[in-house]
Amino acid sequence: MYIKSKMFFNSMILGASLVGISLQAIAEANQEPVDTVLVVVNGNPITQSTYDRILAGRPAGPNRDRKTVIDELIKRELVLQDAIKHGLDKKPEIITELATLRENLLVGADLKAVAETLSSSDAELQKFYTAHLKEMITTEYKARHILLATSDEATAIIGELDKGADFSKLAKEKSKDNAAEGGDLGWFNSGQMVKPFSEAVATLQKGKYTDKPVQSEFGWHVILLEDVRETPPPSFDKVKDRIKMAMQRTKLQEYIQNLRNEAKIEIKDKD
């Protein structure tokens, strides 16, 4: 009987010990990790997490040296304490600016959190790619130009071309741009040129030049179109990430619009 009682007593102690160990482990797991204090400035600690946060925003280089960063954190803390000592944290304009910074941080954090939930499947991305395939085909032009300071000069050049003058030779003699190359611009698409120039090129036939001077912010152009080609669209894999970002932006805009649709908004400004 004594042996059974002793065994029961021992098992109770063991069980209580195990429960105690389990509770301790749970408590330790729920505790936040201890933030190491690196420096104390007038009683205020500068911790490892602050150091890590500052370091994360710095590019590689000597300014990432640990001693340098800690020294800068000490200076920052001293100035911060001085600002509070002078009551700057109580000034209305500072309070307003801090509130604005807080709002901006929260808006940015919310947009980031929402964006991370707005993923698109490969099937959605492929559908978008197929639907916009034609838009990805780019027309490229190969052209030369002669850039002049005035419309009269450009008109005179066109007159010489009409009489059979060589375009490349005139460009070398008269052009303010690409003269050494005979005005050669190589291959380009319309988005790479200023609007008046690209519009003029798009109306030309191969081997023809503009019969009127074309004005842009750079001066007056006489343009010769040498060739035209269609560039094939990029592969799906090459633009997949860009499509993903574009679709994410679209979904985020839709999300914000839904918030607006569901909100009660009263605009008081009559202007």
Tell me the helix content. 55-70%
Number of helices: 9
Question: What's the β-strand tally?
Answer: 6
Q: Looking across the biggest beta sheet, what order are the strands in? A: 4-3-6-5
Distance between the termini: 95 Å
What is the averaged pLDDT score?
87
Mass-distribution shape: elongated
Helix and strand pattern: HEEHHHHEHHEHEEH
**How much of the sequence is in beta strands?**
15-25%
List keywords for this structure.
single chain; 271 residues; alpha+beta; four-stranded antiparallel sheet; two-stranded antiparallel sheet; 6 strands; 55% helix; elongated; disordered N terminus
Descriptive notes:
The protein is of the alpha+beta class. 55% of the residues lie in helices and 15% in strands. Strands 4-3-6-5 form a four-stranded antiparallel beta sheet. It has a two-stranded antiparallel ribbon with strand order 1-2. A hairpin with a 2-residue loop joins strand 5 and strand 6 (219-231). The termini are far apart. Mean pLDDT is 87; it is low at 1-29.
